[in-house]
Amino acid sequence: MEFKGTEPLYIQVAKYLEGEIFSDKYPLGTKIPGVRELSADLVINGRTVQSALNKLVDEGLLETKRGLGNFVITDKARFNEIKHQKIEKMTQSFIEESLTLVSSAELSRIFLSALEQSKGDE
């Protein structure tokens, strides 16, 4: 994982872990590595990792089982809802930022073209 200087490290770690969870590296109900293991793997402070995990717990993606660690939630409907909300938020941010550069018609054309290209990649 490469870190960027533009946003807090714990947010970057939380996003990284979200990606790992959403890509099914850690399926529903799976225990994720502990703070020590993650901090060693990512070569960062354990407090930073703990802050990232707390963020994911607060967002409802992880649940803490006292004495056992952190687990991906088991509720598939809730999991899909969280995933959908993340995608909506990313899309809205992309649209808002893009509209500062091009018109909505041009953005629509660019988006549809990119979508068609990605269909060919499947």
List keywords for this structure.
single chain, 122 residues, mainly alpha, Arc Repressor Mutant, subunit A, 2 domains, two-stranded antiparallel sheet, 5 helices, globular, WH-like_DNA-bd_sf, Tscrpt_reg_HTH_GntR, WH_DNA-bd_sf, transcription, transcription regulation
How do the helices and strands line up, and which of them pair or pack?
Elements: H1 9-22, H2 35-42, H3 46-58, E1 62-65, E2 69-72, H4 76-98, H5 104-121
Antiparallel strand pairs: 1-2
Helix pairs in contact: 1-3, 2-3
Description:
The chain is mainly α. The chain has two domains: 9-74, Winged helix-like DNA-binding domain superfamily/Winged helix DNA-binding domain (Arc Repressor Mutant, subunit A, Orthogonal Bundle), CATH 1.10.10.10; 77-121. It has five helices and two strands, in the order H-H-H-E-E-H-H. A two-stranded antiparallel sheet has the order 1-2. Helix 1 packs across helix 3 and helix 2 (35-42) crosses helix 3. It is globular.
Short description:
Residues 7-75 form the HTH gntR-type domain. Pfam families: GntR. With 122 residues, this protein is mainly alpha-helical.
Q: Can you tell me the CATH superfamily of the largest domain?
A: Winged helix-like DNA-binding domain superfamily/Winged helix DNA-binding domain
> Which secondary-structure class do the elements indicate?
mainly alpha
CATH architecture of the largest domain: Orthogonal Bundle
- The helix-strand sequence is HHHEEHH
How much strand content do the residues show? 5-15%
Helix content: 55-70%
CATH top level of the largest domain is Mainly Alpha
Output mean pLDDT: 94
Distance between the termini: 26 Å
What's the gyration radius in Å? 17 Å
Annotation, overall tally of beta strands: 2
Q: Note the overall shape.
A: globular
Structure annotation, total helices:
5
CATH topology of the largest domain: Arc Repressor Mutant, subunit A
Give a quick account of the main beta sheet: strands, pairing sense, barrel closure: 2 strands, antiparallel
Total discrete domains:
2
Spatial strand arrangement across the major sheet? 1-2
Q: Residue ranges: pLDDT <50 for 5 or more in a row?
A: none
